[in-house]
Structures are given as structure tokens and as C-alpha cells.
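for the recovery benchmark. C-alpha cells below, seq after
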């Protein structure tokens, strides 16, 4: 059962007037701006569009089931990656991660995918393409990563946390392999009741995860000798990894 029309109207009415205490430059505040049904190849979702006063980006939630007031809702936080998500780039594994999260949530009664419009770790598409270009010209990944910029975790999670509050989710099961994500959300007041390991099926494009070791910067080289960037902030567990490999992900 999805969010009813009555519940949607109630949420939209409340959010029209919503302001967090101390609303302004320094205080993140988010409002639900629109909600609609979204049948998809992964199941019947509803799409929720958000306004926020922090980064003026149009973040989204893809919601399965009636999550309003619900506990232990499975949640995946995904950062936008135009090249990976839409085009299927193999420079990262964003599309595999996105599809596997949507497939899993699509089979559940309830779940949420937060789609954060933080392309290239928040520095935008153009700078991400620049960093790729630097790597093509032999730049060390560390330098190219500096050009890519490092994600401002605080910013990302504070908007994401408020999005969950706006949806009136009481507690979540976070789909991640990165304990830091849990700590960050917990510090922002999100109740994380459990972690669901983020496991993706093996395919020809991610087999290298099973066989290669990390470079000096902690990244991984694929079969072409190109480095795969971790744009989602955590390495996925690929089905078939050994317990040692899985343990190494969390270090
Ligand atoms: Zn607010
Ligand atoms: Zn990507």
C-alpha cells in the first residue's frame, strides 16, 4: 500500500508552512514540494520532490509503501551520477549500486531510496568530467581526486536526515557497508535500528572487485588498469566475496 491521497495532501499542506526553528542560512531545512505515483521497472514507487534552503538542489525520494510513521524502513542513500546512473559508465559502479538497491526495495513492502543530487561528490558534473580528463592524461588518482573534491558529508547527511524527518519515518535500516554513514545519520537524530549489507550481484563489470587489491590511495584498479572511483562513498559487497574481503571493506 502506497501513501494515500489523503496522506499526500496532509504532508503537502504541512510542508507548505514548515520551517525549522532558526530557519535560515545556517540551519538546514527541507520541505516536501510534490508527490506522485511512479510505476517503474523495479516496482510501484512514489516520487517525492523536495525543496531545501541549503544547496538549492532538487533532491528526491523514491518511496515504496506507506512509510509515514513507520519503523525499521529500509533506506538507501544514493548520490547522483549522470555518467553511471543514466549512461552506464564503467568508470564507477553507481549504476550497479542504484539498480541493486531499487531491485531490493521494489521487492519489499516498504523502503526508500534517497536520490541526492550531489554529482561528483558535490562538486558538479563539469568538475567531475575535468577530473576524469586529468586521469586520462596520466594524473595520479590522488591528484585527480583532489580535483574531484571531497564530499561534504555533513551537508549531504543533514539534508538527507531532514528528508527522512519530512517523510515522518521513525527509524530506518540503512543499506550500506560503511559504518560512518550510520554514525553521521545517527548524530543528526536519525534512528538507525539496523544495517543491511549492500550486496550486488556479480557481473562482467564488477568481477575485478573479487580479484584485485586496493591501490595506495585505497581505490581499486579494474581489468583495464583504470581506477574505479567510489562515488557512492562505500564499496559494494559483490556476491561471492570472501569474509576477509568483506571485512576489508569496512577498514
Ligand atoms: Zn525543517
Ligand atoms: Zn558514478
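predicted aa per position
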Amino acid at each position: 500500500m502506497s501513501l494515500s491521497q489523503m496522506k499526500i495532501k496532509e504532508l503537502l499542506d504541512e510542508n507548505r508552512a514548515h520551517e525549522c526553528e532558526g530557519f535560515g542560512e545556517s540551519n538546514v531545512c527541507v520541505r516536501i514540494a510534490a508527490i506522485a505515483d511512479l510505476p517503474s521497472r523495479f516496482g510501484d514507487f512514489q516520487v517525492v520532490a523536495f525543496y531545501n534552503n541549503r544547496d538549492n538542489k532538487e533532491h528526491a525520494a523514491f518511496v515504496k509503501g506507506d512509510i509515514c510513521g513507520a519503523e525499521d524502513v529500509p533506506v538507501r542513500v544514493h548520490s547522483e551520477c549522470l555518467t553511471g546512473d543514466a549512461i552506464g559508465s564503467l568508470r564507477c559502479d553507481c549504476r550497479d549500486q542504484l539498480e541493486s538497491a531499487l531491485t531490493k526495495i521494489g521487492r519489499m513492502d516498504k523502503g526508500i531510496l534517497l536520490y541526492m543530487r550531489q554529482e561528483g561528490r558535490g562538486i558538479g558534473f563539469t568538475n567531475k568530467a575535468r577530473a576524469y580528463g586529468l586521469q586520462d592524461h596520466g594524473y595520479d588518482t590522488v591528484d585527480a581526486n583532489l580535483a574531484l573534491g571531497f564530499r561534504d558529508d555533513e551537508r549531504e547527511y543533514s539534508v538527507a536526515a531532514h528528508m527522512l524527518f519530512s517523510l515522518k519515518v521513525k527509524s530506518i535500516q540503512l543499506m550500506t557497508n560503511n559504518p560512518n554513514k550510520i554514525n553521521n545519520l545517527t548524530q543528526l537524530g536519525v534512528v538507525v535500528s539496523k544495517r543491511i549489507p549492500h550486496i550486488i550481484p556479480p557481473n562482467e563489470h564488477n568481477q575485478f572487485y573479487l580479484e584485485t587489491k586496493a591501490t595506495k590511495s585505497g581505490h581499486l584498479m579494474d581489468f583495464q588498469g583504470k581506477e574505479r572511483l567510489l562515488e557512492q562513498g562505500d564499496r559494494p559487497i559483490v556476491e561471492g566475496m570472501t569474509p576477509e574481503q568483506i571485512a576489508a571493506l569496512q577498514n
